[in-house]
Write a structure and sequence with these properties.
Elements lengths: L10 H18 L18 E5 L3 E7 L8 E6 L2 E16 L2 E16 L10 E5 L2 E7 L15
Length: 150
Amino acid sequence: MFELMPYAGLGSLSKLRREMDDLWSRFFDVQASPGLRTELPAFVPVVNVKETDQALEVTAEVPGLKPEEIQVELSGDILSLRGEKKEEREETKGDYHLVERRFGSFARSFRLPVEVDRDQLSAKHKDGVITITLPKAKKATATTIKVEAA
């Protein structure tokens, strides 16, 4: 009734572990689970920060957004970009009707590595790219104070 089986070591246990790891990775994989995709931001702009001798230049890709839909704010040394994307596409062709809606808000914040001149800040929007120019503040120079006898 009972047969002796060769000892397989921990092979079957490690196989079970691999299968459980695979199950959990598929469960939490957003690409494989379209139902979980709605919990993630619908749109996060790609941002580049470039530093030159005179300024910091921040570029953000915001396709489909109008300038009035983007808020840029500098508070202390934190630069924040916020906006909301609302996109609706409807297409009727032949025997099918397609309606797609994508929407979502985004917020990106960056700590500036240098002090900037707040009177010279600018932001421009062109072809789906916003460019924010933050000129560096002039460095304070040391002032010598002459000591006089009293």
